[in-house]
Amino acid sequence: MRARARVDLIGRSAEIVALQEEIERVARSDAKVLITGESGVGKEIVARSIHTLSPRAAMPFAPVNCAGLPETLLESELFGHVKGSFTGAYRDKPGKLETAHTGTIFLDEVGEMTLRMQGLLLRFLETGELQKVGADGGSRHVDVRVVAATNRNLHELIAQGQFRDDLYYRLNVIHIIVPPLRDRREDIPELIAHFLGRYIAANRSSITAVSPSAMKALSAHSWPGNVRELENVIERLVVNAKGTQIEFDDLSPDVKAQDTISFKPRRERRRTVADDLYKRLTDDRESFWTAVYPLFMEREITRGNVRDVVKKGLEEARGNYKIVARLFNMESRDYKRFLNFLRKHDCQIPFKEYR
Ligand SMILES: Nc1ncnc2c1ncn2[C@@H]1O[C@H](COP(=O)(O)OP(=O)(O)OP(=O)(O)O)[C@@H](O)[C@H]1O
Ligand SMILES: [Mg+2]
Questions:
Q1: Could you tell me what percent of the chain has a pLDDT over 70?
Q2: Ligand index nearest the alpha carbon of residue 37
């Protein structure tokens, strides 16, 4: 049997055929792979296919969602920990890197890692040595193939100081880009048939067909959530269907809407530079002086970005600059310096608008 049969990607568009060939080629090597593409395009399927087509197929495939866990838990998830190293660490636990030994580790959403975790990962990639949380001395060498994925723009994150460029170069030996569904609409009917088959069986539904007008609308929709959105829509249609055929009228307004016939991609609201900076200040508890100030002074971010961050702070603090300063993790004696900075660079926004 040809290897291609084992790549689980549905679709026969030129993009998917090229992607399948690339996966087969890449699977034969042992190089690190970085998979990028919008949310829901199938990055995880690509990662699994690389593993199952590789010489490591009989060994473990260990996925780790780098976005789903707080930093300390992610650290122990990856590197393992020894008993008693933190509250709740009741016994020694191997990390995913260790359990994936001789197999493949899949670092999903790698763009969400904190800078400290990025540093730890980089050290591991450079040495192959594993150091458990709470272990003093004694490291173990592990042999894993590394496949990483992200829907973030890593170049942007690097420019913002949120992703290490040295780690980027380590991970990005081979770069696989998974195209959005709206750029390969020929695949839509086959995907619909595939998901219909799955959900008709699962729901013992009496659906037997999709009406031509419904099919036309589904094929013309821009699918900002890509294949995952299409899958969810099909499941919902099967569950809610009254007759034996899916009709145009069964579709949701956004799928029916005329403007989706245009081939302009509809963009999801992307996280802005200001959103990311604000998150660093409030969630990661970085100080304004380290997270925002240097980037602005080095012209990595614009005055508009700084103003947007300040606006967000003012909204949260209901117009009180003192509270904004605290929110941005500044010492109280830095309050004047903060205001001076904003004034000097024309980033001060009238607080009354937020009262
Ligand atoms: N070409 C395809 N053929 C069949 N199923 C697909 C295809 N592409 C995606 N899917 C299905 O769509 C869903 C989303 O795919 P997947 O989880 O791999 O996306 P992703 O790119 O990892 O998304 P995210 O960035 O949101 O994690 C899954 O249920 C997957 O099985
Ligand atoms: Mg994914």
A1: 93
A2: 1
Report pLDDT for 113: 95
Spatial separation of the C-alpha atoms in residues 309 and 346, rounded to whole Å: 13
Q: Is 181 in the pocket of ligand 1 (CB under 6 A)?
A: no
Mean pLDDT computed over every residue of the chain: 89
Pocket flag, ligand 1, residue 10 (CB < 6 Å): yes
**pTM of the predicted model, to two decimals?**
0.73
> HSE (CB half, 13 Å, CA atoms) of 333?
0
Tell me the CATH class for 185-261.
mainly alpha
Q: How many CA atoms lie within 13 A of 165 on its CB side?
A: 6
Q: Residue 7 in 3-state DSSP?
A: coil
Fold of 3-179: Rossmann fold (3.40.50)
Q: What's the rounded Cα separation, in Å, for the pair 13 and 275?
A: 36
**pLDDT score recorded for residue 302:** 82
Report pLDDT digits (tens) over 215-224.
Answer: 999 999 999 9
